[in-house]
Amino acid sequence: MVARNASKKRKAVTRDVEEEAGVFSGDELSPENLDGTLSDNDNDLSESEDGSDSEIELIDDFSDEDDDEEEELDSDEIPSDDEDEQKQKQTVKRSNADEPNVRIVKDANGNDRYLYDEIIPDDNSDYSEAEENANTIGDIPLTFYDQYPHIGYDINGKKIMRPAKGEALDALLDSIEIPKGWTGLTDPSTGKPLNLSQSELELLKKVQMNEITSEGYDQYEPLVEYFSGKQEIMPLSAAPEPKRRFVPSKHEAKRVMKIVKAIREGRILPYRPPEEREEKDDTVVNFDLWADEVERKDHIMHIPAPKLPPPGYEESYHPPPEYLPDKKERKEWEQTDPEDREKEFLPNDYGSLRRVPGFENFIKEKFERCLDLYLAPRVRRSKLNIDPESLLPKLPSPEELKPFPTTCATVFRGHKGRVRSLAVDPTGIWLATGGDDGTVRVWELLTGRQLWSIKLSDEDAVNVVSWRPGKDHIVLAAACGDDLYLSVPPIADPEIEKASLELVDAGWGYAANAPALNTVEAKKANKPVQWIRPSSALADAGVSVVIPLRYVPKSISWHRRGDYFVTVCSGASTPASVAISIHTISKHLTQFPFRRRLKGGGPPQTAHFHPSKPILFVANQRSIRAYDLSRQLLVKILQPGARWISSFDIHPTSSTASGGDNIIIGSYDRRLLWHDLDLSPRPYKTLRYHRKAIRAVKFHPGGRYPLFADASDDGSIQIFHGSVTGDMLSNATIVPLKVLKGHKVTGELGVLDIDWHPREAWCVSAGADGTCRLWM
Amino acid sequence: MSDEQTSSAVEATQRQVRVQLMSKQEDIALPENTGPILVPTGLRRYALSTLVNNLLSSEKPIPFEFLINGTFLRTSIDEYLTANGISSETTLEIEYVRALIPPLHIASFEHDDWVSATDVLSEASPAASWASGAKFSKGQERILSGSYDGLLRIWNMSSEIVATSIGPSDGGHTSSIKAAKFVSPNQIASAGLDRTVRLWKYTEDASDFTGKITPQLELYGHKSGIESLAVHASSNRLLTGSSDNNVGFWSTKKADAPAAPETLLPSSSARNVKRRKLNATVSVSTPQRGPLALMSGHTGTVSAAIFDAKDSTVGYSASWDHSLRTWDLVTAALVDTRTTSHSLLSLEHLPEHNLLAAGTAARHITLIDPRASATTVAAMTLRGHTNAVVSLARDPHSAYGLISGSHDGTCRIWDIRSTKTDKDGVVGESVYSITRKSLEEEGKAESKRVGGEGVKVFSVCWDPTVGIVSAGEDKRIQINRGEGVLSSQ
Questions:
Q1: Biased-composition ranges for Pro residues (chain A) (predicted)?
Q2: Which of A397, A411, A447 to mutate to test binding with chain B, by most B CBs within 10 Å of its CB?
Q3: Whole-angstrom Cα distance, residue A584 to residue B232?
Q4: How far is it, in rounded angstroms, from Cα B408 to Cα A773?
């Protein structure tokens, strides 16, 4: 049995190897090994016999090795009685248990060769083995063999002999004593009586009992809920996407190509060709009544119907909720008479357009509109054709209003901290500035050269500087802290300097000689102010007189003759009686003309003398009052409407030219207001061009150029043209000309003061950034 | 459309015009027999320049500028012909001149304070030509500077101070100097904010490294700072402009000058008397004299006063009151007033054209014809500066050249032939602009100073040998020279 098996295997293996040998030789010629085997190939070609020999040898080698292996495998597969086989089986089993199922053997060339164990198919495998003694005659009826002693052949070609038939008695006995599983049938394949096995009997029994035949089937096992509401964490399958998802479908391509081909060949047409219209029936004649009609002009009295206004939100089928009427409105609408209703309908929310019902009033509404158009008398109105440009006031272009300052010509740098005030001297050569560092400086205007500097105070800032008007004397008034200083800067020639010193010093004698008047004045004012001589250091530097005021003056304004100047202490804590003071240089006298607080509008801010009339203008926070000094009465109250006036200026020539005064007012609430005193106490023009508070406003002095400027905390200066004509009927022309930018905004403060050159269209500005600038 | 353009362009390049090239300068003139040449009308300045160089067969190419009818050619000939409506069949007369080459920075002399005035003493300078006794020798160029610290300094070309004037305590200027000029190689005149004109004697040692400036004469008369000073040495006359609105006319000779007005002497000031006593009065032996005439008429600061370049009996003055006045200096009478629309800050006479160039506060230079017969006030306007033009000087080589110093920190060279007609009349543009070296050294050459802060030019002087000397707020004297700038009629 074993030997037969072995021989059988041997044959099989030999055949296999022969096939493999073919593969092997082919392999030898594979291009990968070409380089190394070229010479071998040559040998092969020349000595073909040798090559074939070696091939055979190789085959033998393989066959031998395979033989052994097969034997071992056989032994593993089929149990045998041989001792050796048994041993081998044990070793194999051991090796199976302990070692991997691979053996390393040497091949013909001495290289390692891996031999793997044959895979044993288990019961689940499809591999089925034919039964050893099965009849192999196939589908031939057994009756063919009735004449023969055998009933067929087994797999080895040996006859399967017909089993011996028992005697009739045996059959009878058998029928009496029926063995378990007896059927009385003969198995056609074997010729033996067909008995049913125990398991087959049980199966039949189950079939009879209407039970399910398979073993271990539990009809009532618990349900596995595959499709439950619970969400499983892991996917049901982790299989990768199949390739077909990524490659275009060939089938589809095929079908598409089919259609394309059909389209190309014209079997499929993109659209149906238009059918030929039926021929016109020549017998019927149609007349076109309007064939030769030309468009006629509308009748001269034709008035097109007015257009209906476009629908609003409330007419929408789905209006915003604020348009929907609430209950009260709805009720009110329903209760009012249809004639009196404001609207013909109530807004209604339908949600979507398909819910909108038909409009039941359509006919009625159209009819009413037609009736309306028919009955309503319409009026022809001639439309005014006005060019909106022509309604604008005709302002001259800035080009025509030259000269005015446009660029920064000089930067005056030297002050530490803010420059609070500045003034150009009446001759137009020098510039005086005062700043937070307590110094007053005089500069050469054109070049920006500092000529003179004096430190008035270490702590207090110089709030305001002002030159005395008039070219014959050089007197500079400066307010620093509580004190006023009158100084004669040593920049002029000896004659003028002498005259100036004489002018300032003249009052010493007067004050000494006329004590009586002084005391009367002093009593009136409650607090006599004594003009005193400065300290020697200040006197050497050029200061002539010090006026201690006890409160901080924030504004100085000279009378045009230069003998008086008015100062205003605008601090909230200053008593009203001493807030405004008028100083007389020739008498060294300080008077307080206002004993009571100005009614309404807070503390006084600034004051100016009228340039030609004996009028003093005093501004408090919200109004400006004009007092006639000769008659000592209030002339006018201006209410600019500003919340807090910062500064104002009076037009230098308007009263002489037109008889009326013009005043510009700057306010901390960003407004620049032009007042024509003849017109009304309210402003004639309000200019709101700045983003921040306006600090200073100034007319060009002398009236040579009709210019004015304002300085603002936004760091810009704006130049305006403001001309006043002598004609009483025409109002002032105000044209914005230029915005001058350059000062840096430092600590929310921009440009703090501004002044004009007395003759040229140049202006100077003092900035919080510590510089002054000349603009020309 | 584009076809038309290209065809016309092709036509233009093919079109030719007959030109007659000529030059007024001998050394670059073409040979006599050179007749009119046919040139393509597409040529521009550069091509024409190459052409002329070829014709001259000059070894080193000279850059030329071309003038047609007194205007520089800035476009192609074709465009010029079209713009001026000239037929291309006429013979075009083109004058060529040497082109100006950008002036290069040579040196900067640093001072302690702002430099307000500068003048040059060289072989070709007016002061040298007026030298009576001492002959000026070449290679001894001197540069005079007047500074805001009240001192005059004399420099040689190797940036060494040869001499410095005395300080205020020793009888020098008590305030800033605003104008200073060489009268002769031995004499200097200076004036400033202390209202005096001072004449100094300048002597140099043989060693050349030390000189001495000694006060010679003090002239009193002005009541305010003196802004400008003009010198005519051959007639011993000075002309000053002051901010007291007067033009002063002075003599440099002690004997000619009248006595000084008592009230204006520093001793008359009440305050100064006191100070003088404290300071143990300096003993000043300098003679004090007054003006020959103080000519009043201006209503603003007289910013410049000059002599007529040909006739020393005629003076011109420019003022902040917008007017330019002509004075007869013999009788000290006002001859003529020309009023412009801007403040005038500087003045220069261009005698060949009978024009006065005046720098204005409105950032331009206006050329004014002072003759009574002139119909228009402003003949031409030169625009380009961005701040007040405070100093002007003639080009020593060309009758058409001019240099201006401005508060914007630049000096600009102008050629009055290079103009175009604008809506504002004839307008010119500068040929070159010289910036301050101090800005470049700070690495801020490109940045623009607001109001020319720190770099204002106060004075400019153009000398044929030394070059362009400018003084300014950056405390420097800056010397620029353009090689080849130096010639053209």
A1: 306-323
A2: A447
A3: 51
A4: 14
Distance CA B474, CA B489 (A): 34
Tokens 């056989």, residue located:
A74
Q: What is the pLDDT of residues A115-168, one digit of tens each?
A: 887 776 665 555 555 566 778 888 888 788 888 888 888 888 888 887 776 676
Mean pLDDT is lowest, of A177-191, A535-549, B262-276, for B262-276
Say how far apart CA A107 and CA A113 lie, in whole Å.
6
A166 backbone dihedrals φ, ψ, rounded to 5°: -75, 175
Contact B145, B159 (CB under 8 A): no
Rg, chain B, Cα only: 25
Tell me the two tokens of residue A419: 């420059």
Cβ atoms of A718 and A736 within 8 Å: the answer is yes
Distance of CA B46 to the CA centre of its chain: 30
Q: What is the pLDDT of residues B348-372, one digit of tens each?
A: 998 888 889 999 998 999 998 888 7
- C-alpha distances in angstroms, A209 versus A203, A206, A212, A213, A770? 10, 5, 9, 10, 118
pLDDT in tens, A581-592: 999 988 888 888
Chain B residues with CB-CB distance to A496 below 8 A: 223
- Per-residue pLDDT at A491: 83
Q: Looking at the complex, does the CB of residue B272 fall below 8 Å from at least one CB of chain A?
A: yes
**Residue B436: strand, helix, or coil:** coil
Q: Assign B438 to helix, strand or coil.
A: helix
Distances in Å between the alpha carbon of B393 and those of A676, B350, B365, B473? 51, 10, 12, 19
Cβ(B467)–Cβ(B88) under 8 Å? no
Which candidate, B148, B113, B109, B108, places its Cα nearest to that of B475? B113
Q: How many CB atoms lie within 10 A of CB B134?
A: 12
How big is the A-B interface in CB pairs under 8 Å? 98
Binding-site residues on chain A for chain B (CB distance < 8 A): 403, 407-411, 413, 427-429, 444, 446-449, 451, 490-498, 501, 540, 742, 759-760, 762, 773-774, 776
pLDDT tens per residue across span A215-264: 778 878 888 877 777 776 766 677 888 888 889 999 999 999 999 999 99
**Tokens of residue A402, six digits:** 């030259």
- Token reading at A407: 């660029």
Judged by CB atoms closer than 8 Å, whether chains meet at B225 and A429 is answered as: yes
d(CA B269, nearest CA chain A) in Å:
5
Residue of chain B whose Cα is closest to the Cα of A541 = B271
CB contacts under 8 A, B 63-122 vs A, are: 114
Query: Could you identify the residue written with the tokens 């919080």?
Result: A768
Cβ pair B224:A448 closer than 8 A: no
- pLDDT (tens digit, 9 = 90+) per residue, A646-702? 999 998 887 776 667 889 999 999 999 998 888 788 888 899 999 999 999 999 987
CA distance A760 to B322: 9
Residue A577 CA to its chain's centroid (Å): 60
Interface confidence (ipTM) of the complex: 0.83
Of B268, B270, B320, the CB nearest to A760: B320
Contact A407 B114 (CB under 8 A): no
Question: How far, in Å, are A424, A540, A570, A633 from residue A629 at the CA level?
Answer: 28, 37, 21, 7
User: B140 or A209: which carries more pLDDT confidence?
Assistant: A209
Q: How far apart are CA B231 and CA B242, in angstroms?
A: 15
The strand pair at B71-72 and B64-68 is best described as: antiparallel
CA dihedral B378, B383, B387, B388 (to 10 degrees): -20
Instruction: Kindly determine whether residue A447 and residue B224, on different chains, have CB atoms separated by under 8 Å.
Output: no
Q: Provide the residue type at B182 as one letter.
A: F
The residues facing A647 across adjacent strands are A666
H or E element: which one contains B224? none
CA–CA dist B388, A410 (Å, integer):
10
Contacts of B299 in chain A (CB under 8 A): 759
